[in-house]
Amino acid sequence: MITVISATNRPNSNSLKIAKNYVQLMEKQGVEAKLLSLEALPADFISTELYNKPSENFQQLLNEFIIPAQKFVFIVPEYNGSFPGVLKVFLDAVHPDTNRGKKAALVGVASGRAGNLRGLDHLTGVLHYLGIHVHPNKQPISSVLAMLDAEGKIKDENIIKVLEKQIGEFIKW
Amino acid sequence: MITVISATNRPNSNSLKIAKNYVQLMEKQGVEAKLLSLEALPADFISTELYNKPSENFQQLLNEFIIPAQKFVFIVPEYNGSFPGVLKVFLDAVHPDTNRGKKAALVGVASGRAGNLRGLDHLTGVLHYLGIHVHPNKQPISSVLAMLDAEGKIKDENIIKVLEKQIGEFIKW
Amino acid sequence: MITVISATNRPNSNSLKIAKNYVQLMEKQGVEAKLLSLEALPADFISTELYNKPSENFQQLLNEFIIPAQKFVFIVPEYNGSFPGVLKVFLDAVHPDTNRGKKAALVGVASGRAGNLRGLDHLTGVLHYLGIHVHPNKQPISSVLAMLDAEGKIKDENIIKVLEKQIGEFIKW
Amino acid sequence: MITVISATNRPNSNSLKIAKNYVQLMEKQGVEAKLLSLEALPADFISTELYNKPSENFQQLLNEFIIPAQKFVFIVPEYNGSFPGVLKVFLDAVHPDTNRGKKAALVGVASGRAGNLRGLDHLTGVLHYLGIHVHPNKQPISSVLAMLDAEGKIKDENIIKVLEKQIGEFIKW
Questions:
Q1: What is the domain range of residue B134?
Q2: What pLDDT digit, counting tens, does each position of C120-146 carry?
Q3: Is the pTM above the cut of 0.95?
Q4: ipTM metric
Q5: CATH of the domain at A63
Q6: CB atoms within 10 A of CB C30
Q7: For chain D, how many helices (H) and strands (E)?
Q8: Chain A residues close to C131, C-beta within 8 Å
Q9: A-D interface: how many C-beta pairs under 8 angstroms?
Q10: Torsion-angle region of residue A12: left (phi > 0), alpha (psi -120 to 50) or beta?
């Protein structure tokens, strides 16, 4: 099972739009994926989930999206030159042995030009620490606003092509 | 003005203990510093403060600890191979132009052996992005449990020496 | 085929000693590996090999150790807080498409305590850029001088155990 | 004294062109700078200078460009997703205490779009390790070929503006 994670809790984010496109691009290659938006994290997450056993609600989220998944795709916006704090808060709340040996693909999202390259590097360090394999084909999407149409569909053919290539490699991996 | 930031909201953390020692070591060199523990972040922080104007409470915290400070010391525990998500959530909630040109010193805290070296590197990338100068003398504290006595005082003379040296350089900077 | 690379041209380096131990530990698990020490790089390497077609001698080295290998183990000492420049010079001289899709395991070597953690992170970034998969189980060896006996054998049982575990995972990968 | 370092030994490199522009932009602000191109490294550098005392020639280079300098500007091309191996070889050959407390500004150069962002991050880690202050205003130049005219002058007004701003900040620093 594959879970695509939109790595921000910002309402109606560009990353969520990219994530929805990504799930559809996977379907075109015959693969089902679940979509987890970090908007799902409850408001009091940093108080309730970081240093305790998971609450019933969070355990349910883990049971549906994290524990059964063998592969993850992280769609990661750039916040202050790296990945969102909310993504790390989420990872900090998951038992560090939960995902050892699993596999991850990374997509960066930025309004600027470097496509959150640094955020993907930082995330690679954290995922490797957690024993998660990271596919070397990482896709940084720059100038994301110009890449999406009014319905939130990716309109840039080049982006679609590189994402399709990444998906093809990740499925077979 | 200098603010020492204990970069986790974990209750009664070792980082907070180190931070209190750090404030006292600064006093010994004749410098007052404020202490901000990220325990102060309200439970619903990721819901209320990330994509809106600061709430009144958060603005008050910024007014007391962040806006008037010219220098910051970050005491940063290692969570999953990097710095805590809560620290990045905090930084993501502060307007990115708030601290340009200010100065930071970094102290890593870990129960393992590398003293959160990677977390300090990641944090350097984020702080530089925010226009904050980072002092090259970064102090990673390893095996933190063995470094503290029962009252939370640093008992390791070597650690005290390297922190005093860091403080001396940081004050004059 | 697997090539173990001792990533420095320093004569009689501790990294080369670790690399020889590593090859023997692989043999104990039934796997042959070639050993390439970067001492093999000719004295005028930065002049002759960086911006030209490989010389006959360098092509021979590539033909023996790099092109037929499907997996690499990098034994990487810490030089000035990262990996040796000589390793990057070597990688810069190899055509960037040579090793796409291959696999690498990383071992850090340092006289200090962090086992060249930063060097392994930097190398991960470069190898991923080159399309090489990097195993998340990276082994930083600290205080290397205390780990070797007079004959250059690893005498620390813990180090041997973690390397054997890494080898086991890497062979099956 | 300020030394601008063109961080590759590639003959006639774009980085050297950028470096020459940079020196002129500094002159326009009333500051003299020396220019060191790593083309100056002798062919057998990795054999003669890494693990010995500096040769007479290299000592002369150090005496002219490194030891008297209080500030460095590194013009750093992207080689395989990071900075050139030759730059690290050069740094590995300089005694690690030579430049403690000095200051550096970084400019990335790439034919691609991220302007060698990762290389500047890696270099920051190394320079901080060496006790060198790194200015947070780092300038990554992307698509360098489109930025230069036939005489090797920067023709992009935006690039000139951001470099002039960086120079202004660096001079006063």
A1: 2-172
A2: 999 999 999 999 999 999 999 999 999
A3: yes
A4: 0.96
A5: 3.40.50.360
A6: 7
A7: 7, 6
A8: 136-137
A9: 21
A10: left
